[in-house]
Amino acid sequence: MNKNSCKLSAVILSFMMTLSYITVSPSCTVPVSARPMESAAVSVHFTDVQPEGTDATDETGSSSDPSEDPASTEAPADISDLNAPAIVSGSAIVMDAKTGTILYEKNARTRCYPASITKVMTCLVALEHVNMTDTITFSNDAIWGIERDSNHIALDVGEQITAEQCFYAILLQSANEASWGMAEHVGGSLEGFSDMMNAKAVELGCQDTHFVNPHGLHDDDHYTTAYDMALIMQAAMNNPLFRTIDETIYYQIPPTNICEEPRDLWHQLKPIFPTSPYYYEPIEGGKTGFTDQARNTAVTYAKKNDMELICVVMNCEGAANSYQDMTALYNYYFDNYTYVYPLQTFNPNNINHSDLILNNFYHGLDHDTLNLSVNNDLTVLLPRNMDPAALTTQTAYYPTLENNIVGKVTVSYNGSVIGDSDIVYHDMTVNGEVLRWGISPEEHQKRLNNTLIIAVSAIILVSLSLFIIFRIRNRRYRYLKRRSKTSALHF
Fold it and tell me: Which of 326, 320, 313 is closest to 112 using CA atoms?
């Protein structure tokens, strides 16, 4: 090869190496069109936390370069409230725990891997089927079936702890072998317990959830959505035992039949620790998760000024970012929303539908008073600066009566339905008689007809009796009169 050819080859090789470096360099920015809307709006601080193993601490895994796209897809994020703060998490939701109202969604119906927030469902199902004093004995599969670098509390084959201690190990320390042992105890096997989890998900109204294990270690067929996880947490919060366990910072398992030393358990949710830089006082409890495939996940619930919210973040780069996302969302909705009671002054008796109801159910029965009611305590969560004119009600009455429900009043805000209440029939007054709740209109009519029949019969009977008495008295009178005349003639 001559000198000119060597120079040309060197130039070509140098150009190719430079092009390759530009292509793979982490400093290369993602095209703007591929960024989620939030990332362009606010600069977010990323923490440089490296994974210590799959689900090892539930708080590991982070992007070291803020330019890396944290979203789950390259499509623009589906965000329901553009006024809410920008967040890093690829998927998120904020739900009102009391009413189930969805306040915020970002890709909330997109399938994500849940990692250890799976354990919320694990405990929800198990709490419905065990006594806290039950003894959990750990099988060989429970101990050795999990990845050794994942979260555990060093239980051993044949070791026994109570169900209560097992729940604390699952929710506080995110112990995977404890989850497996609980699943076997309740469902007989992982498959059996997973079926119970999936049945519970359907019962709660989850739309895109499928579980194959109780711990959340990665499986391609183990997924859920932020929306479904909010429903699961809402149900779990209604169980007092779940809340008691999940809101505990520290718990100790005493020596067991195998281990002579007590085990100290600390909650993995940093925002509930007053000494943590991520401390957020309104957060009462929750669960975090991490796997390489799921990235950081978290589901928490927080209370402030009698408002209790649920926040789920999934597919987030870095535990610190997940905490910051939740705090930002909580602050925004606590500060800008309030409870409203739209039916507090609503009176269905003031609405001129009595004739319709009477025609449908009472066949034109005349009445003095018709007593209907709605749920005046119906609660909805709306912006503090809402336009009162945007809140409207609409009533509808049914052509048939079932369980004393004669219709429904629907509450809408800006044209979207946000709540409703049945219109319930209690009683009515007819000719001074109160017809009570619980008796069907047909029975009311039947009773009225019977009353009329009895009254008419009584009148006829009285009239007939009077007529008979009159006839008898009249005959006796004529008899006595004739006899009197006869006696006079004989005299």
Answer: 313
* Burial of 270 from C-beta contacts in 10 A (0-12 / 13-18 / 19+): buried
Helices 118-127 & 226-237 angle (0-180, nearest 10): 30
355 vs 176, which has greater pLDDT?
A: 176
H helix runs in 305-348, sequence order: 319-336
Sequence-distant (6+) residues with CB within 8 A of 176 are: 55, 146, 147, 150, 151, 152, 215, 217
Separation of alpha carbons 298 and 246, rounded Å: 13
Total-model pTM = 0.71
> Which two tokens mark 320?
């610190």
Concatenate the DSSP letters of all residues of 261-294 into one string: S-EEEE-S-GGG-TTSTT--TTEEEEEEEEETTT
Confidence of residue 50 (pLDDT cuts 50, 70, 90): very low
Asked if residue 414 lies in contact with residue 390, where contact means CB atoms within 8 angstroms, the answer is yes
CB contact at 8 A, 407 and 424: no
pLDDT > 90? residue 13: no
Enclosing H/E stretch for 87: none
Task: Say which residue, 360 or 341, is predicted with more confidence.
Answer: 341
Distance CA 379, CA 376 (A): 9
Cα-to-chain-centroid distance, residue 39: 29
| 8 Å CB contact between 186 and 136 | no
**191-206 burial, b for 16+ CB within 10 Å, e for fewer?**
eebbebbbebbeebeb
Enter the DSSP assignment of 72. Answer: S
Please tell me the distance from the alpha carbon of residue 410 to that of residue 393, in angstroms, as a whole number: 5
Residue closest to 142 by CA, chosen among 107, 193, 94? 193
Write out the H or E segment, with its range, that includes residue 490. Answer: helix 441-490
275-290: pLDDT as tens digits: 999 999 999 999 999 9
Task: Report pLDDT digits (tens) over 444-461.
Answer: 667 767 777 888 888 888
Q: So what's the pLDDT on residue 430? A: 55
Residue bearing the bigger pLDDT, 58 or 86: 86
Q: What are the DSSP calls for 142-198, one per residue? A: HHHSS-TTS------TT-EEEHHHHHHHHHTS--HHHHHHHHHHHHSSHHHHHHHHH
Q: Are 71 and 77 in contact (CB under 8 A)?
A: yes
